[in-house]
Amino acid sequence: MKVAIVVCAIVALAECLINIPLEKMKTARESLEEQGLWEEVRLKYPANPMAKFDQSLIADEQMTNDADLAYYGVISIGTPPQSFKVIFDSGSSNLWVPSIYCNSAACNNHKKFNPTISSTFRQNGQSLSIQYGTGSMRGYLGYDTVTVGGIAVNNQIFGLSESEAPFMQYMRADGILGLAYPRLAASGATPVFDNMMREGLVNQDMFSVYLSKNSAQGSVVTFGGIDSNHYYGAITWIPLSNQLYWQIAMDSVTVNGQVVACNGGCQAIVDTGTSMIVGPQYDIANIASGVGANSQNGQYMVNCNSISQMPDVVFQIHGQQFSIPASAYVRQSQYSGCHTGFSNGGNSLWILGDVFIRQYYSIFNRAQNMVGLALAS
After folding, report:
1. Is 312 annotated as catalytic?
2. Whether 351 contacts 190, CB under 8 Å
3. Full-model pTM
4. What are the counts of helices (DSSP H) followed by strands (DSSP E) for the chain?
5. DSSP characters for 255-320?
6. By mean pLDDT, which of 4-18, 104-118, 171-185 is the weakest?
C-alpha cells in the first residue's frame, strides 16, 4: 500500500502539505482490449460522461461509467483500518465503498467494507442511491473514521453499497471519494474535505492535483495547499461561475488560431473524475475536424504516424491560453490504434478531465472559490 507523504517547510510545522500518492494503473478499457472484450462491453454499457452533471437529478447524484480512468489513491476506513482504492473525484461529493452486504458482480472483485469488525462504526439509518448512466449504486449511510493520507477524519459519513451497476466490475477502483461542494452530495452527506476544513485538519482550505503524463507513479493529490514541485511559472486564478461543481467560464477553443468551439464563451467543469475532455457534439466534431481526426465507432481516430504534425488545441480561459499538444490528447493503443481524448457530451457544458489536468496542475481553492491552473512539471 502506498503511504502518504508529508511535506513540511522547515520554518513551521503548520505549513505541512499532505500528499496522497495516486497510482496510474491499467484502465478498464486497456484490460478489456487485451482480452478482446472491449467492443462487446462498450456497446453493452455505453458511456454518458455528462450524466453526473445533470442538475435536474441532483438529489440522486449522477455518475457514469468511464473506462479510461487511470488514477486511484488509497484511503482507509474503520478501526482497525480497512484499505480501499478510490477515485478522488472533483465532480462528485459523496464517499462510498462496497460493503460485505453487496453481492453484485461489481462488488465481488473489489474490496468490501465490513462494519461488524470496526469498533468506531455507527449506523446512520438512511439509504443512499446514486444513479449511473447505465445503472446505479444503492446502499446505506454510516459513520466511521476515514483516514486520507494520514489525516484521520472522525465520524465521517460515507456510503456502503449493497448493489452496484454491472459496469463497475470492470473498474479498477473500489469506490469514489467526492471533492465537489456539499450542495451536490446525495442524501445530504457532508463531504470528506468539508469535514477536514471544519475540524482544522488542513492548513489551507484547498487541495491540488498533479497527474503524471507517462509514469505509473508520481501523481498526487495534495490536501492543505500547493506543492511547488509540480508546476512551472505563474498560477492563473479563475473564479468559479457556479459553486456546486468546480465550474468556470471558458472564452473559446482554437486550432491553428481559428475558433472551432465555445464561440462566444461557454461553461466548463474541472473534473478529476472524468478521463477525457468532453464538450457538445457539434463543438467536439469541429475540434476533431481541425486536428484531422475521423469519427469511428463513437471515437475520433487519427493516423498514429501523424501525431507529431498535428496542431495544439488551445483553450482560452480567463484571458490566458492553455494549449494541449497532440502528444497529450491522442492515446495510442496496440489493439485499437490512435484515438483522441475528446468525447461528445449531451449539453452545453464542457468537462476538462484528466487529458487537460495532466498538462495543467489544478488547484481547487474553497477559501476563495477559485480554480488555479499552472503548467504541470
Report:
1. no
2. no
3. 0.89
4. 7, 28
5. ETTEEEESTT-EEEEE-TT-SSEEEEHHHHHHHHHHHT-EEETTEEEE-GGGGGGSPPEEEEETTE
6. 4-18
Does domain 230-376 sit in CATH 1.10.3720.10? no
| Catalytically annotated residue among 54, 89, 144, 205 | 89
Same fold, 5-209 and 230-376: yes
What is the pLDDT confidence band of residue 63, given thresholds at 50, 70 and 90? Answer: very low
**Residue range 18-40: mean pLDDT, rounded:** 71
Instruction: State the cell numbers at 328.
Output: 497529450
Q: How long, in residues, is the chain? A: 377
| Fold classification of 5-209 (topology level) | Cathepsin D, subunit A; domain 1 (2.40.70)
Which of 191, 268, 181, 218 shows the shortest CA–CA distance to 71?
A: 218
DSSP 8-state symbol, 190: P
Catalytic residue, candidates 205, 271, 283, 354: 271
Residue 40 has pLDDT above 90, yes or no: no
What is residue 298's predicted lDDT score, i.e. its pLDDT? 74
Decide if 354 is catalytic: no
Question: Are residues 209 and 362 in contact, defined by beta-carbon separation less than 8 angstroms?
Answer: yes
Q: Look at residue 58 and give its three-state secondary structure.
A: helix
**209, 268, 319 from 179: Cα distances, Å:** 11, 17, 27
Domain boundaries, the chain: 5-209, 230-376
